[in-house]
Every structure is written in C-alpha cells, then in structure tokens.
Amino acid sequence: MQIYLPIAEVVVNALTLIGLGGIVGLMSGLFGVGGGFLITPLLFFIGIPPAIAVATGANQVVASSFSGVLAHLKRKTVDFRMGGVLLAGGVVGSSLGVWAFNILSRMGQVDLVVQLCYVIFLGLIGAMMLQESLRAIRRAKGGPIKPVRRNQHVWVHRWPGKMKFRASGLYISAIPPLLVGAAVGVLGAIMGVGGGFIMVPAMIYLLGMPTKVVIGTSLYQITFLSAYTTLMHAISSNTVDIMLAVLLIIGGVVGAQIGVGLGARLRAEQLRILMALLVLAVCGKLAFDLFVTPDDLYSITPGIIG
Amino acid sequence: MTRPLVPLLAALALFLPGLVLSQTQMRGGFDSAQTPSAPRTEQVVAGISQDDVHITTNFDGSDIIIYGAIKRETPIPPGEPLDVIVAVQGPAKSVTIRRKEQRFGVWVNTDSVSIGAAPDFYVVATTRPLDRILPPEQDARHRVSIPQAVRAFAGALTVSDAVPFTEALLRLREQAGLYRLDEGVVTLVEQTLFRADVRMPANVVEGIYSARILLLRDGEVIDTYRAPIEVRKVGLERWLYHMALEQPFIYGIMSLAIAIAAGWLASAAFRGLKRG
C-alpha cells in the first residue's frame, strides 16, 4: 500500500513504515528502550530525508515515552524534582541543538553530522550492551561475580547550588543534572532521539540515583523534552511529517505491547545479545556509507544557500 | 471556425475511444491563446485530458493525455511531413547543487552552486527524434530541449566551474524521472490528429504546470499552443502541508496531541489486556 507523505514529499509503502515502527516498538517493549536511536537511521535507509527523519523521530518518541511514563507514575517511580532540573537543562540543550541543526543544514553538513553522531553512539552502545549481556550470561553460568560498587559521592556532587531530591534520596549540586540534561537535549535535537540510552547510565553512574527511579524519571523528562524538540523543529524548519509519525506510532504501539508480552516469556540474555548485534549492524551500515564512494558525487537540495 | 471543426471533432471522438469529454473541458481545451502574427496555414487546436492533477494520499503518478488536431484551410503542403512536440513543464524553483569530496576518508559536501530557478519537472514528447526535427537555432529560440529549457531559467551561469553542477542537475533529475525526453511517443495520424501520453511520476510537486505544443514543418516552428495544468495536493494532504507551513505552532501542537493520545491509548489498552 503506497502512501504519499505530505511533508517529506516522497511515496513510501505504508506497511513498511508500520512494520518498522512495529519492530522498534517490539525492541522497546522487550528491552525498555525508547527506540528513537533505531528508528531514525532506519528511516534514512528507506529514503526519508534526514531532516524529516530526525524531527519526526522526536515526535514518535513522545508517544512511546508518554505511554511508558504513565506506567511509572502509577508505580510512583518518578522523581519530579530531578526530572524538572534535567528538563531545565534539556530545554537549553535542545534549543542549542535545533539552532545547530539549522546552521548545519544551511551549510549542507547536517546529513554527515547526524550520521557521524549515530556511528559513534550506536557503536558505543552496541559494544556496551554486548559486553554487559556476555557478562550476564557468564554470571548465569556460575562464573565469577564482580560486585559493582557505586561511588555515592563523586566530586561533581560537591559543586555549589545543592538541592534535595527526596525521591532519589540525594542531596547534591543542581549543576551536574543540569549539564546531563543539556547534553541529552543537544543530542536529542540533532539525532532525533529521546536520549534515554545516554541519560540512564549518566543518572546511575554520574548522579548516583537509585535504579528504581531512574527509568521513570528519564521517561518523564524525555516526554517533555521530545515534545519541546518536536515543536521547535516544526516551527523552525517545518520538518515534522505527521503522516509518517502516525504510521510509525501505530506500528510502535502494537509492537511494544507484543514486546512486553514476549519479554516476560523469553530469555533476556540471548535477546540482549541479538539487540546489541542489531545496533552494531546499523552502526556498521552507517559507517560503511560514510566511507564508500557515493553513487553520485552531486546532490540537489531545494532553495538557495549562501 | 465552427464548420471545419465538426468533422475534426468526429474524428477526435474516433481517435480517442473511451475518453469522455465534458462540455467544459472542451471549452477549456479549445480556448487557444494564440498571438496574431503572419497568416498561418496550419494551426494547433488541442485539449488536455486532465487540466487538474490531484495529489492524494495514494497518489502514485498520473498519466496526462494531450491531444488535438491541426486546423488548416488549405490542402496538406507537399514535402517533409508535419511534426509535433509536446513539452510539459513544472513550476520553477531555486535549487542548490552540492559536490562531495573525500576528506580523511569520509565523503563530505564541499563545493556548491545555487541556481535561481530550475523547473521541477520537464518532459518533451516528440513524433520523431528531436535532433532530426528541431534545428539548434530553433531550439535556442523556443527553448525546447531539456538543457535549453533548464538553461533558460539558470540564466547567468557563465562560470565554467558551474558546468559540471548544472550537468549533475540534469543527470539527477533525469534519473529521478523528472526530466525526460520521450522521442516518438506523440502519435500523429494523417498529419491531422495527434495524441501524447505524458507520465507524471509520483514524486512531482504541486504548482501550476504548463503544456506547450509546437507544430513543426521543414525545421521551422509554424505554430505554438500553451495551456496550464494545475497540480495540487488535495484533501488531507493539502490541509496538512499548508498548515505545516503557515501555522507551524498549531501543527506542532497537533502532532504532539496525536502522539500523546496514542501513548495514552496504548497504555490504557495494555492495562485492559492485563486485567482481562
């Protein structure tokens, strides 16, 4: 079923898009990730212009993270205060990111920068996930257990402007969460992702937050931040394709439900390895495209760029 | 005027079986806007099957049939037969062409050339190979062939460095099916009735297109005819497209509302499934 996307101005198969959303939703249901970091590069592969893929990806993240945060609100595993501080940093970061995105697209370098960011981050995350799951399998087989000691008071906690975060049981400077929020905001705007895959480790290892509130707080912040990013992209560059977003969301919502159901029955370690390999494969394909001689050295973009 | 048309219409009806022409389409088609010049012996009268192309959700291209007849008061002149060229041109827009170069092993966009206006779509359909029926000086005057038509817009691109860029524009658009030379697809019967089927691909953009018909004899353009074709998004497509451009804030809010509603629905449905 071919469908014409009004903003992207391309014709794509609607079932491909729903399937894509479904696969990514399945992942997010299985592994508890937002999936934005997979959906955007997959959209590049099927020929959606990168600027549209990034902005629409942010819109899709709103749907998936909102659905997740509702579940966490019920379980009371959201630190609103921490989320608010992260969000304040995130809004600044996202504005910077959208601004940088527009400058880069005027310079004709946005595709390159977005792809480079993806190669770097997908590479890092894929490698980390692979290592983690291999370790988990070793542990399950009765191998040596290395206890991970979390450093409760890192040097960054001694910065000025201390705040009490009751839900997290922390009394730390507000500057580190602001910086983490800002960094995630910049990446989210440039890569069209929620940034949970960066924020979650940063919250655990850098801010020392207890694991039970990390996912809920991260989702809470991501919902608002992606909403803000979507709006910024829609206003500054008219690159949100609502038709594309709806198809991805339909697939994603159904996929996520199936994923959650499957996740309860399947063995997580092997799946995690598969996921890591998939992430690395996407990363490899993007990296390959950067180095291989393009089909045509010339490309056309609408408008006059000074 | 009406008398010689009657047999033509009858012939036209035979020539295009199955094509139902309404009275309004007829009027639009035959309302030829010709400039009065030297007395011509042969004139184009033409119609377009569709002067309004709609881009809808399931739009996957459109075939436009441009048909017509040659009106003449005198017998068919002897010598070389008559030829017909049909050119359909899309709206002109500014474009930037970029070239990639390898830097540190990675392919990076480096040089670029901007062109003030180039048509988004340009198809030339002819009765016979273009270079055999249209001499270069006539081409330069009437801007018929693809390079001529595009250069007409590009204007002052005299920089020699720009040549590979304009060539790339032609090549890329030809590959995308947006610039096309369809030689021999115009059928001409008895030097009187012609018909051209012009395929518009799914990736056309909206705007006012123009169809041009040129009548040639002995390497001379003896008559031209022009008619507009409107290509536009309709229904939901049109509404969304215009809203995104004209009211980006409301459009953005709407996108978010849809996302949040979908997220809430998913979570509610999931709870329902768990309970049930």
Task: Describe, in plain words, how this protein is organized in 3D.
- The complex is a heterodimer of chains A (306) and B (276).
- Chain A is 70% helix and 7% strand.
- With 306 residues, chain A is mainly alpha-helical.
- In chain A, helix 3 (50-74) packs antiparallel against helix 8 and helix 4 (80-107) packs across helix 6 (175-191).
- Chain B has 276 residues and is of the alpha+beta class.
- Chain B has two domains: 2-230, no CATH class; 240-275.
- Chain B has eight helices and twelve strands.
- Chain B has a six-stranded mixed beta sheet with strand order 2-12-11-4-7-8. Chain B has a four-stranded antiparallel beta sheet with strand order 1-3-10-9. Chain B has a two-stranded antiparallel sheet with strand order 5-6.
- In chain B, helix 7 (235-246) crosses helix 8.
- The radius of gyration of chain B is 24 Å and the shape is extended.
- The interface between A and B is large, with 58 and 62 residues.
Query: How would a crystallographer describe the biggest sheet of chain B?
Result: 6 strands, mixed
Order of helices and strands of chain A: EEHHHHHEEHHHHHE
Unreliable residue runs of chain B: 1-38
| Structural class by sheet pairing and helices of chain A | mainly alpha
Write the layout of secondary structure elements.
The complex is a heterodimer of chains A (306) and B (276).
Chain A: E1 2-5, E2 10-13, H1 14-31, H2 36-45, H3 50-74, H4 80-107, H5 110-140, E3 162-165, E4 170-173, H6 175-191, H7 196-206, H8 211-237, H9 242-265, H10 268-291, E5 298-302
Antiparallel strand pairs in A: 1-2, 3-4
Helix pairs in contact in A: 1-9, 2-3, 3-8, 3-9, 4-6, 4-8, 5-10, 6-7, 7-8
Chain B: H1 2-15, H2 23-30, E1 42-48, E2 52-55, E3 62-72, E4 83-89, E5 92-103, E6 106-119, E7 122-126, H3 130-133, H4 136-142, H5 146-154, H6 163-175, E8 179-182, E9 187-189, E10 193-200, E11 207-217, E12 220-233, H7 235-246, H8 248-275
Parallel strand pairs in B: 2-12, 7-8
Antiparallel strand pairs in B: 1-3, 3-10, 4-7, 4-11, 5-6, 9-10, 11-12
Helix pairs in contact in B: 7-8
